Amino acid sequence: MQFGIFSVSDITRDPVSGDTPSEAERIRAAVRIAVKAEEVGLDVFAIGEHHNPPFFSSSPTTLLAAIAAQTQRIVLSTSTTLITTNDPVRIAEEYAMLQHLAEGRVDLMLGRGNTAPVYPWFGKDIREGLPLALENYNLLHRLWTEDVVDWEGRYRTALQGFTSIPRPLDDVPPFVWHGSIRTPEIAEQAAYYGDGFFANNIFWPKQHFQRLVQFYRQRFAHYGHGTPEQAVVGLGGQAYIAKTSQQAKAEFRPYFDAAPVYGNGPSMEEYLAQTPLSVGSPQEIIDKTLSFRETFGDYQRQLFLMDHAGLPLGTVLDQLELLGSEVIPVLRREMAARRAPGVAEAPTHASLVHAKYGNVEPRQPRPNPNRGDNVTGTSPYQDTEGGAGVQYPAL
Predict the structure, then answer these.
(1) pLDDT band at 377 (very low <50, low <70, confident <90, very high)
(2) Nearest to 225 by CA among 183, 192, 202
(3) How far apart, in Å, are the Cα atoms of 82 and each of 17, 61, 90, 183, 336?
């Protein structure tokens, strides 16, 4: 099972110090947080995508490439890549390039986005958000799995004989999660392709996300990808950790009360009782996270939101120390001990390559120098090296 952190990239005033970090400070802090996450033994760092204040992460691939250059092991992901307002061709090319630079340590989580003004900034209509998401992902999937694509749809110009470059590393696309707060149609899309489903699992009662996950598991099995228990599920959650419960609540309360997503609503105690929000000692965080398994069944990825609501960088780094030293080792041991037989492991680039090729050397696409520019409908690549003897299925 994978454990990690995700960020929504908010720039929020610190209610204790009164300081609001600059964009430059938050961008640099995100890199330091990701590097620290690897240092303390976490498996995943994920960043969201936003195109409006008060957020900074408008170009996740740029940020993750910088992090890739400073890390060795941690998987780099998005906690949202907008499949609606982004061109699928640009997503295909940018994330394949990032996959090469990070030597396979890349996956991404697709989402529709729910900020209405962003859609017209990119020439889209939020009322078309769902069909946009469905059509754009169909194209993205084909761009990553077919060397040459002929395609026509409603929301962008047609493609004829188009090849997305670079091709995915080892000819294996990054693993895709479909993230959703409330939409069963996105869970259906994830199940149809046999992709992962990430239930945000913050802010709302667990019963809401439980229904989404159960629906995804049922549809995953319906499409023949395996049993419901073998479906690939990720969960979010926000945590604040201190040595004692009293200390954690006292330290986090001003941030909770001032947070845009929490403030002026139910009390922190009500949130703790009704939602996945975890504030307490290491043992309390462990106990609450283990309860997620009881609610959702065995799952593959747990991400914690740790840098939200104006928490200063020093505090976040201290939180990561506690998470890595006192929480995650226990969760790894307990989750492994309780795991049912036959449950799928968290997908990685290595596991996806092995699933496709077995012990055969992976295909390494090389442009064919004998292919003229006027040749269409045929692969522009030669397979004289790598992947010898591999039969590629029709897609």
Answers:
(1) low
(2) 192
(3) 34, 12, 11, 15, 33
Q: What is the pLDDT of residues 326-370, one digit of tens each?
A: 999 999 999 999 999 989 999 999 999 999 999 999 999 888 877
Question: Which among 95, 87, 184, 186 is positioned nearest to 134, based on CA atoms?
Answer: 186
Distances (CA, A) of 161 to 139, 146, 158: 13, 11, 10
Q: What is the CATH number of the domain that holds 289?
A: 3.20.20.30
Total structural domains within the chain? 1
Q: Measuring CA to CA, which residue among 380, 385, 393, 333 is closest to residue 149?
A: 380
Cβ-Cβ contacts under 8 Å for 237 (sequence gap 6 or more): 201, 202, 276, 277, 278, 289, 292, 302, 303, 304, 305
Confidence bin at 394 (pLDDT 50/70/90): very low
Burial class (CB in 10 A: 0-12, 13-18, 19+), 83: buried
Question: 174, 54, 176: which is closest to 115 by C-alpha?
Answer: 54
Helix or strand or coil: residue 162?
strand
**Full residue range of the structural domain in which residue 214 is found:** 2-382
Residue 391 lies in a domain: no
Give the whole-angstrom CA distance, residue 145 versus residue 223: 19
Task: Name the region of 297 (left: φ>0; alpha: ψ -120 to 50; beta: rest).
Answer: left
Report residue 88: phi and psi, to 5°. Answer: -55, -30
Q: What are 125's two structure tokens?
A: 């209509």
The CA distances from residue 232 to 107, 235, 287, 296, 348, in Å, are 13, 10, 23, 12, 12
Answer yes or no: is 394 within a domain: no
The answer on pLDDT for 76 being more than 80 is: yes
* pLDDT > 90? residue 244: yes
Report yes or no on 387 lying in a domain: no
Sign of CA dihedral 138, 144, 145, 150: positive
Task: Kindly state whether residue 393 falls inside one of the protein's structural domains.
Answer: no
